[in-house]
Amino acid sequence: MSRIAVLSGKGGSGKTFVSTNLSNIMNNSTYLDCDVEEPNGHIFFKDSELKYEKKVYRDIPTFDSNKCVGCRDCVNFCKFSALAFIKDTPLLFDEVCHSCGGCELVCKHDAIHYEKSQVGTLSVYDNNSKKIVSGEMRIGEASAVSLISEVLKEVSDNSIIDCPPGSACSTMESIKGADYCILVTEPTIFSLHNIQMIVELVELFNIPYGFVINKSNKDLDYIIEDYVKTLNKKILAKIPFSKEVAQITSEGKLITNENEDVKNLFYNLLNNINEKVN
Amino acid sequence: MKIAIATEQENLNSQINQTFGRAPLFLIYNTEDKTSTFIKNEAMNAAGGAGIKASQFLVDQDIDSVICFRLGENAVKVLSGANINLYSAQANKSIQENIELLLNDKLEALVDIHSGYHHG
Fold it and tell me: Out of A81, A83, A172, whose CB is closest to B50?
């Protein structure tokens, strides 16, 4: 029983591929799609029934020009420089605002109040014994963090967390409660470069981790293997580069339902992780 | 008129800095008395919103014009909001030369406005 986060430095490495297939072979699992800028994991779970959908909001400050005296306490307080003061009025840059509430606290004139602003939508599906949770960001929204934290409220003790690509705030938010991180790589220099940043991140969070090589190629795997050796870590699984895998995935199907060998590979991966976590 | 220019060195013969919000220094050039003042850019190491913070500083200095290569959209919002004129700097020309070009109406309005360098 564990909460497994699936990460990769770059997009297209196979996070959703690994996440959905791993979730598929786990009983009573919860699949959480935290890649809220482009959620597509739910597509792979056919015959899902939408249980509920809700709007997710974050709080942003509004300014009462009748009460504002122009003291700038709010502007000076904001550590993110989300406020400017122009033409005797505070000006909010809502995509820079972290919704910390500080400006409202420091305002002595009761001129600042927080209002709700929609960040996106959360959808929860039932799929046989599984729960599928998906966040989708509103177009134009800059920060995914508050939506991801809402997605993660649906976490269970048997969860797969499909993280956003990269190593920025949204990825950090996604791995906060994880017991284990799977780092999905490809045997390319580009993937190696990006996965090194992910290693720095998970080590900072002190979460145990291991590697999966996707699109494995015996002539190129050394690119990742040599690096993994220097960390004294092991490769948990290698998923072969195969036309069949690509074809089935592109049709929105799960390879673990279609190919016994790959299904066994995912079972081994899961057992490997369970040994490390429990 | 007060002109602001992002720079790395306290020298009118040096080049204009490629970035704005995270430039080390700002030159404030006063065309009335021809004085140059170099001021450290406090926004240089800001955790976020450096363009906003640097722009706010220039607004508070009562700047009339900014000469630069490019600006982020948030900086533009602050500077334009305060009716500051934005001019596109000429490459391979010194700060001094760019100031003279502006005074002779030879600089174009700034067109290179980007969406900022945000990292999550």
Answer: A81
